[in-house]
Design brief:
The protein has nine helices and two strands; from the N terminus they run αααααααβααβ. By secondary structure, it is mainly alpha-helical.
């Protein structure tokens, strides 16, 4: 079940919350969550403290909303990418599957390029939730939802291609998420906070080629 509650809000309030989330990301990336004050977040968003507290009960509440919003947006983009590529993936021949997957993954990455600030803030949030006991359970719940929906989307993509996994799908997803996380950190290193992170699709494709079994078993890497 989707834990996100913002879908029941008015359009105006959703926009206010989105603006505050984006402002929080920009401040978290520079100062970390412990060093970020609500005043700084409000200033970055162009809102008053009253506007903040009419939408979030605390900074920690904003942190959880950030996870929810970014998770939903990321999975929605992946869903759209799979839908766009359905016909091409379904018609893929063994000889061109690796090249096609590379283009597909690159398209998924590039639909919305994350900024360096977003990449840093995402890791700050994860570490913060692990340090704060009362946030850990909620973080795990949101993470479980993310994995559940991601598993559904990847299953759809695998069915289109006609591929099966050599290891349990949940384990494959954890590998892919770890590779993505490390890839994003490396791509963000040494860049300005407002720069876009250019992700290399090849590490993800290499994992897929090694851990997927394609029709007739002849597309896998040796």
């Amino acid at each position: 079940m989707n834990p996100t509650t913002s879908e029941n809000l008015s359009a105006r309030r959703r926009q206010t919350r989105t603006t505050l989330v984006e402002a929080g990301i920009s401040v978290f990336a520079v100062k970390g969550i412990d060093g970020a004050s609500i005043e700084e977040i409000c200033e970055a968003a162009g809102y008053t403290r009253g506007a903040f507290y009419s939408n979030f009960s605390s900074r920690d509440d904003l942190v959880l909303a950030t996870i929810e919003q970014r998770t939903s947006e990321t999975l929605d983009r992946l869903d759209r990418t799979i839908q766009r590529w359905g016909d091409q993936l379904g018609a893929a021949q063994c000889s061109d599957i690796e090249a096609l997957l590379t283009t597909f993954i690159d398209d998924a990455f590039s639909e919305k390029r994350e900024t360096v600030a977003e990449t840093i803030a995402e890791h700050e949030i994860e570490l913060y939730c692990l340090r704060v006991p009362h946030l850990q359970a909620r973080f795990e719940e949101l993470n479980s939802y993310q994995l559940e929906r991601l598993e559904s989307l990847v299953t759809t993509a695998l069915d289109i291609v006609g591929a099966t996994t050599k290891i349990p799908l949940p384990d494959l997803l954890l590998v892919l998420i770890s590779v993505y996380s490390q890839n994003s950190l490396q791509a963000a290193a040494g860049k300005a906070l407002d720069e876009a992170v250019e992700l290399d699709p090849r590490p993800t494709v290499q994992i897929l080629m090694a851990l997927l079994e394609f029709p007739n078993g002849s597309c896998a890497q040796n």
